[in-house]
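Priority: medium. Attachment 1 of 2:
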C-alpha cells in the first residue's frame, strides 16, 4: 500500500465549498477527489513524457495560461478553436481562465458602453 503524507496548500474558498458539495453528493471525500485528479494529471504527463509526446505539455501550458490559444494551436499543428477545445476535453484539462483583474476590466468596459 502506498504511504501518504499530509501537505498544506491553498485553494479558492468557493472551489473548496463546491468540492465539498460534490464529495458529499458522490459519497466520497475532497481528499479522494483531489488524489484521483492529481494522479490522473501526473500519470498522463509521465506517459506522454515517456513516449516523447509533447502535446500534453503544450495543452497543460495552455491550461495554466502560459501559452495563448494561437500559440498552442500553432505548436500542435491545428487550425481551429474547436479542435483545441476537443483536445483539452480529451486530455481532461480545464480551459484557462483569465486573471480576475482582466475579467473585471472587461466587465467595466462592457458596463461603460452606451445603452440604447
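Attachment 2 of 2:
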Amino acid at each position: 500500500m502506498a504511504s501518504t503524507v499530509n501537505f498544506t496548500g491553498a485553494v479558492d474558498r468557493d472551489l473548496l465549498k463546491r468540492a465539498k458539495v460534490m464529495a458529499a453528493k458522490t459519497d466520497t471525500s475532497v481528499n479522494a477527489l483531489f488524489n484521483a485528479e492529481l494522479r490522473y494529471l501526473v500519470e498522463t504527463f509521465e506517459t506522454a513524457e515517456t513516449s516523447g509526446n509533447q502535446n500534453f505539455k503544450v495543452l497543460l501550458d495552455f491550461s495554466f495560461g502560459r501559452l495563448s490559444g494561437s500559440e498552442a494551436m500553432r505548436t500542435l499543428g491545428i487550425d481551429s478553436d474547436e479542435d483545441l477545445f476537443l483536445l483539452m476535453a480529451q486530455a481532461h484539462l480545464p480551459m484557462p481562465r483569465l486573471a480576475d483583474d482582466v475579467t473585471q476590466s472587461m466587465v467595466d468596459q462592457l458596463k461603460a458602453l452606451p445603452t440604447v
